[in-house]
Amino acid sequence: MWDREIRAMVSTHAIMAASVFMATVVPAVFLPGFSVYGTHLSWLYSVSAAVTGVSVAVFWLLGIAQPTKKHSLGYKLSRLCRCCVYFFLSCIFFHFVVLLYGAPLVESALETFSLAVLLTSLTTLRCLCVLGPNVQAWIRVFSRHGAMSVWDTCLQITVACTLVGAWVGAFPIPLDWDRPWQVWPVSCSLGAVIGFLTGLVAAPAWIHHHRKHLTYKSK
Amino acid sequence: MKALPVLCLLLWVCALYLAGIYLFLSGFLLVRLEVNRTSTCGDVLQPAGEEHGDFCRAQPRFRRAVLLIIDALKIDFARFDPNNTTPRPYENKLPVLEETVSVRPSHSRLYPFRADPPTTTMQRIKGFTTGSLPTFVDVGNNFASSAILEDNLIHQFGRVGKRVVFMGDDTWESLFPKSFHRSLPFPSFNVKDLHTVDNGILQHLYTTMVGGDWEVLVAHFLGVDHCGHRFGPDHPAMADKLTQMDGVIRSVMERLQNDTLLVVMGDHGMTDSGDHGGESQKETDAAIFLYSPSPLFPARPSRAEPDVVPQTDLVPTLALLLGVPIPYSSVGQVLLPLFPSHGPAEGVAGGLSQLDALWINAKQVNRFLETYSGMAADIPADILSDLKEEFSRLSADYLAAVGGARSSSPQLAAAMQAYLTRVRDTCRATWAQFSAGKMAAGLAVLGLACLLCLTVSEMSATLMRGEGPGLKRPAAAALMTAGCAAAAQLLGRGSVEAAWCLVAAALGFELAFLWGARQSRGIVMATKSVSKANKGGAWPRLHRLLAPPFSVLLLRCCSLLSDSYVIAEGRAVTFLLLSLVLYVPVRLNWEGLLLPPGPDPLKAAGLLPSAPLSPSAVRRESGALLGCVGLLIGCLFASLSFHGCREEQGACQPSPFLAPLSRLQDNQLRNLHYVLAVCSLGLWTYLLRRCLRHYGNLNSSGGAAFVARWLLPFLFTCLVLHWAVSATPEDSFRNLSELIGLAQLALPRTAYCVLGLALVLIWVDPLTVFVKTKSTASGSAPLPPPRYRASTGISPQAELHHLIPQLYQRMRRSLDDGEQSGSSEAGGRPTVEAYGLGTAYSAPLLLLCGVLGVGLLLLHPEGMAPSFLLLLLESGALLHIHASAVSLSGRQRTQAGGFSVPWTPVISWSLAASQFFHATGHLPTFTSIQWSSAFVGFPDGHVGTALPATLVILNTFASYILFGVGCPLLLLWPLVREVHGSRGGGRACGDEGEDAVMEMRLREKPQQFSSALLQLSARYLFVQGVQVFFSVCAAAVLRRHLMVWKVFAPKLMFEASGFLLSCASLLLGVTLVLRVDVAVSRWFKRLVPDGARSKRTHL
């Protein structure tokens, strides 16, 4: 049981990491002048879109989020709508938080919002996929005894890694090195993506390492 | 409650920190007094008997001089090696120097030119114009402008009527304002710009030279230096730049006339990475090249040539060659090869012989030494008297030689040279060398002090029980080591330097204390839990150090090591504080304490401890916590708009609130700012009173309550009026100008007096407890009590009941002999009601902070009032967050009575102090000090310096003072807030639980109270001290950094001064708490009849 879940997780994460990689490489082939620094926003959106698409597809196929009960189409539609609204709200929330952390208020609002979209697609989207549009459950997951399955633990780790990565990414901005990656929000989005990739690797490894100590209660 | 040990320990810790800081600074900050005297032509008259007449009128050897200063012209750049076939980019690029020296040896010479540290351009320009050894702090120099006040070459040229034309680096313009006949400054700030300054000079240099309206021409090229900073010396750009300079020198030499001296020199060298500022040979060794179309050097190059010319020597040489007096404070010696050895040389008009030049020089140096030693005592007395004797001997010899008309004596010249060299070396040892030993000792003392502080905070309980290392043994050790050090010095050198004794004493104390702590911890460990100690090892401690609060502290400390972060410090601190604050709810949620636990199967299984609070209480506390986090974040965000700007921050607009109102042109805007300031101050006053009233502290008739009730509003009125008066434009209300002048004088002074009175009152009568007995209730209560009870809902009677139930019965009996049971309030209540007892400790402290805050706001520009309001709100939010977190995590109840304050709030508190240092418009640079604060209430200036200095310091470190004084609130606030948590739902009066004891809980456990107070203070001191330690490290490690005198050294000074004031204000706060404790004890004593005194033992 453990092995199967971990294996599923590893393959899922491999697909996600590959999608990030492809989102970086493929447009570079087709679009002239595409680069991570030069056309940062398009890279950012391409990564967001890729991660969004892949996570939705993978988690839908795996069927983690959905309880096995059959629901009416209307219920599913309303659920989808709520997911979209939550996605958007989360973008605004992240935008707000990043502003509070000291991002420029007006002049690069688009960049800030793009970063918020990226953070949302790396963190909130996963919550949506795993837990559904249920804020109570999200808050519960991020507590010591809140994880109820391997996927919850995995969610904790990846989300924490992504956010810490974005946080750490802000450190080089004040330095006077004049590098292209110090421009707002390049370092933060790079930090978030690197943190996300780290999380993708770290989560299965950690779970595998601690599989003896992990116990989950059922709902 | 043990007051004395707490204070003693804290004082000791502070003293150790300060000793460390003092030691480091005495080795790092070289201080020199400026002598504000100038040499005159009469000074350099020849000795009696010779009829030379006025020195300045005599024909000098050169009428004109051209000074080409090539910034950072290292000696390696100037040398030419024909055998080097593959030169590096910086080698062999100035062939003109070598060519000239070899072709015309009597016209030119090239020497290494050794600068003195600090090798920064401004200090160097000072150095080679005054001939002295400028230090970082030239006392007498006013910080606001950097103009040179000491006697210098430019000044002397001006006095003799020589026209000085300057072009190049605009530093000169700020050093010598209005001293030049003509000046063409170019901006030097942008290090990346290699060409602006040089091209600007080149546009004007040649035309100026051909035109005749100058006697001295100074051209300061910056390209080489900027190229070094940007690319390093080993870069093709450097080759281009040096080649360009080669061309410049050639062209200048072609245009020289016979009566003109050319000096090409570098002001300092550079390291291999292109930086400078320190004392390594690569940085100090520049090049100097002297040339004149007429013969310059009487003798051929010989063995007697100096290997290296010290930079100070340029001043007397140039002065004597150009016929001006040597500047007063110069300690250089003339460059002998330039002077003929036998009297006035053949064919050279008006020249001095070597001996004469040396004599004039020695006389001037001796005069300077006499003046300086009269002003300051930093040159050792024995050396000074030696030098004096030497000079009198030399002068006798010289007079004999001149009188006897003996031709010359090489011995005498050599003796004079030796004398001058010795003077210079003495001065350099005093002013220009970092004392590495003292710096290292200071670092060691400071580092150990941090460790000791940490130990004290961790062992506070043991220390208070008297089991830890006492103060006596370490003090004895300190005395002993100090004595040993003094004896060793006496034996070794014959004199005692107090600094080294201090080092020995501090180290001895710290080591003895730490040793004692280690031993007693071992004992405690052994007695407590052997298994735990065995299992622990180093792992958990490392793990704890990596916990988020410590990582934030570590990040903060590391940010002090980088100039970029110091420049962006205001935002960096805000960022870290925000992260730390957001960590609190995340952490609580992770522990599962933020949300009320649902019907949880785990709890039933015993996996979770049962919740100490009811779900509704948890929900309310969490709501309060999140609300406070939101408020705090809002404050942080808003505070960003009050920051000032450093000059290093290019595109930065200083906050519009920093300008005083009178400077605002727009009437409407001014009114808006005024209204905003008044509202903020009003809100500040209102919130304070509201808080005190809420807890029932305003009812008492004591001094503190008087302050809160009357003096605080009065201060408010004073400030508002003062702002209004000072904001009036000068030209309006002309007929009222006298009145306005009077008001400008009277209002702030009244405020100062009231402030002083308030502080005295709070100190004398800090108790804000209102006792109401039955008999007085109807008559003497100044305000209707039921109103307060309704709003407070505190249960004073329950407190007392809980505290001293038995005493109550006695008092009841003793106080109401004739009990009126028919009274409306009687129903089962005890007879004594004490309002505000629950906040007896925090109320005076809060009041002190509030009053101090208003006083400090008076010293700030009016626009800062909203920032102060933010400070109040933010500290309130921090306290609430801490209190909510404590009650949510149930620490109060589970850990039996431990009042200890965790690290997170302490670190946030300290970060908030730094944050508001910036958010009140201050910056760690000397130029940003708000000097106008010295004139608040003293518009016509001061007589002494102590008062304005105090005012400026209070203004600059206002936030450190407020947060330092308020620090004990972190201990008290959870107790103050506790009542809300346990009181179920209603805010109305009534249902007081037995728990509502608030701060009287502290009196139940005096031991734990004092240990918690000690721990909190030690933690705060540790957090502040570690920051000082890291900025000291930054200054020590990066003392060769380009930015050391611009960023790190000022930062260190500000951090150290801030720490000093933090210490002082923290001690003030702690002392006030202890004072209140004494007052409360006395109050209880008075309350309890004599017969019951014996029962008080259990309190």
TrEMBL record, chain A:
Query: Which keywords label this protein?
Result: Endoplasmic reticulum, GPI-anchor biosynthesis, Membrane, Transmembrane, Transmembrane helix
Which positions, given as ranges, span the membrane?
A: 12-31, 43-62, 83-101, 113-132, 153-171, 183-207
Question: Mind telling me which InterPro entries this protein's record contains?
Answer: GPI_biosynthesis_protein_Pig-F (IPR009580)
One GO process term, biological-process aspect? GPI anchor biosynthetic process
A single Gene Ontology CC annotation of this entry is: endoplasmic reticulum membrane
Topology relative to the membrane, per the entry? Multi-pass membrane protein
Q: What pathway does the annotation place this protein in?
A: Glycolipid biosynthesis; glycosylphosphatidylinositol-anchor biosynthesis
Keyword Transmembrane on entry: yes
**Principal cellular location given in the protein's record:** endoplasmic reticulum
Location of this chain's protein in the cell: Endoplasmic reticulum membrane
Q: Which Pfam families match?
A: PIG-F
Spell out the protein name for this chain. Answer: Phosphatidylinositol glycan anchor biosynthesis, class F
Organism in which the protein naturally occurs: Takifugu rubripes (Japanese pufferfish)
From TrEMBL, chain B:
The entry sums up its family as follows:
Belongs to the PIGG/PIGN/PIGO family. PIGO subfamily.
Annotated Gene3D superfamilies: Alkaline Phosphatase, subunit A
Localization, per the record, is: Endoplasmic reticulum membrane
The answer to whether UniProt assigns keyword Acyltransferase to this entry is no
One GO MF term on file is: mannose-ethanolamine phosphotransferase activity
Q: Report the gene name.
A: pigo
The annotated topology with respect to the bilayer is: Multi-pass membrane protein
One record GO biological process: GPI anchor biosynthetic process
Q: Name one GO cellular component term.
A: endoplasmic reticulum membrane
Q: What is the species of this protein?
A: Takifugu rubripes
Specify the protein name: GPI ethanolamine phosphate transferase 3, catalytic subunit
InterPro entries under this entry? Alkaline_phosphatase_core_sf (IPR017850), Phosphodiest/P_Trfase (IPR002591), PIG-O_N (IPR037675), PIGO/GPI13 (IPR039524)
Organismal lineage: Eukaryota, Metazoa, Chordata, Craniata, Vertebrata
- One Pfam match, given by its short name, reads Phosphodiest
Question: Which keywords describe this protein according to UniProt?
Answer: Endoplasmic reticulum, Glycoprotein, GPI-anchor biosynthesis, Membrane, Transferase, Transmembrane, Transmembrane helix
**Pathway named in the protein's UniProt entry:** Glycolipid biosynthesis; glycosylphosphatidylinositol-anchor biosynthesis
Transmembrane segment boundaries? 7-31, 671-687, 707-725, 746-764, 840-859, 868-888, 957-976, 1020-1038, 1058-1076
Q: Looking at the keywords, is Transferase present? A: yes
Primary location: endoplasmic reticulum
